[in-house]
Automatic annotation (TrEMBL):
Keywords: Ion transport, NAD, Potassium, Potassium transport, Transport. This is TrkA family potassium uptake protein. GO terms for cellular component: plasma membrane. One of its GO terms (molecular function) is potassium ion transmembrane transporter activity. It comes from the Archaea. Pfam families: TrkA_C (PF02080), TrkA_N (PF02254). PROSITE patterns: RCK_C, RCK_N. PANTHER family: POTASSIUM CHANNEL PROTEIN 2-RELATED-RELATED (PTHR43833), TRK SYSTEM POTASSIUM UPTAKE PROTEIN TRKA (PTHR43833:SF5). Residues 4-119 form the RCK N-terminal domain. InterPro entries: K_uptake_TrkA, NAD(P)-bd_dom_sf, RCK_C, RCK_C_sf, RCK_N, Trk_Ktr_HKT_K-transport.
Amino acid sequence: MTTTRDVVIAGGGRVGFQTAEILADRGHDVTIIEREEAVVSDIADEWVATVIAGDATNPTIIEQAGIEDADVIAALTGETGLNLAVCLAAVELSPSIRTVARIDRAAGESYTRFVDALIFPEQAGARTAANEVIGSDVQTLADITATLDIMLIRVAEEAPAAGKQLSEVRFPDGTLIISDSEGDRVARSETMLTAGDRYLVAVEPAVADEVMNLLRG
């Protein structure tokens, strides 16, 4: 079964909000913390996530967001220092939480000793951020078009497609399995969908859930 995660996002700007949309569409539970009242109002109107008004570096505010039960904190504001502070505060309250911070490229990658994953502004498309929030079993590789996702998906052990040849699985129209598990050949009808291996998949958003169910369970 696909694991549903509880995610807290600090920052409801473009990257934060669009990341929340993607994660919510994938079935995850999302809470956004945003300090600008106007942005809070806009987010609330969209009904994408629970939204809390306040400063995410304030322990009371992140406790209000349910940080102790959350699986991931993603600090996606435009301020490097603020994002790192949010992640560090979250770890104090929930030591096992996964931390993702958006930082300025000039800050360098040395910050990886403080957080689990880094997002840089020039590559901080919402799908990239969503990948880092959830981890590596499903990755949308780029914001290529508004209507097509290219994903790298690891086949889950209990998935309906696991252990079957591509020709044996009824994928919906709008799906294309691109590569075999080694990534060195285009997938063919005899390609085996092996549990634990990853495959490059092109999918239209309308059928993404069905494809995920087949490959992830």
